[in-house]
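SAMPLE LOG
Freezer: B-3
Tube label: C17
Construct: single chain, 354 aa
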Amino acid sequence: MNKIVYLIICTFLMFTACKKDESSTPDNNIPIVQSEVTYPVLTEEDISYADGLGHDALSTSPFPIPQYLDIYLPDNNSENRPVFMFIHGGGFTGGIKHKPEIVDMGNYYASRGWVFVSIDYRTTEELGVIQGMTPEELIIYYQGLAPQEWITNTLEGAEGPDQVQQAIAMYLAQRDAKAALRWIVANSDTYNINTDFITVGGASAGAITSIALGISNQEDFRDEISMIDDPTLSTTNISETYEVKSMIYFWGSNIKLDVYEAVYNLEQYDRYDSNDPELFMAHGTADDPVTPYEEALELESIYNSLGIHNQLSTIVLPNGNPAGHGAWNGEVDGKGLFDLTFDFLVERQNLNVE
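STRUCTURE (predicted):
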């Protein structure tokens, strides 16, 4: 059963801005958001948005595993809310949707009028134990979880079981993220979401997944496996479609699209075109070798070549030193990540601000 938690935003709110929005849908159908903390935040936790196949340490056949999301809602009367879906990091080996920094981000945006959704997804924790398996056994073991082409490509380049599972989990994360976004669209009326104003974002592995979600075609990471092999596809609102307006990227890369292109013999950057969502990137020059700063520069170059608006904010630590991986306290000219992304979304989505 969904748990409703009332969060007090701040003491100041009690005396000034603790009010409900008295307006409804604006005449121009563009959502109204607030420049400061304005609304109390309601949280619905652990909502199941779909099932996905997985393994535990003892299973020989995959079984359905529910996937969950948390929703942060402004306590107002608006019938026209933008939505921001966020995907946590963790190297596709773990991570949680309620990481403290994500909770803070959810409250930041919901208190200003957004519906903020934080999702979990399948990682290597749902991929069982594969030590000692032959390639043929692995293909059977992961049938219905990842396409055979993806598994075969993985086996050619992986140096051990851990890398095999990480690559499989990379595919699963994408499949789940797309299912979560379709769930949001399917339930948009329930939460008064305007689906013309969809933002997706994430940190690290979540940023990698966000890029692939916004850039890839609707059918990519969805139709490579049939419903016969993966019956859980029927739980994923398969008939829904979406259009991502903006992407938010914290210290990520475009590696997943590179892998997709390699698996299916596509031309380099074949997935990119001039209709792709606009992009905000926050990345530090001291990031690790897995998601180096050069990945942001590469995406910036791709976007510039297509004439798509993008912003690369080279973040530093509060002491002025270059920011590394996971620098949630990173900033530009004293402005933190939440304010930087707020400014980007308000300006580029042309939102009404009060």
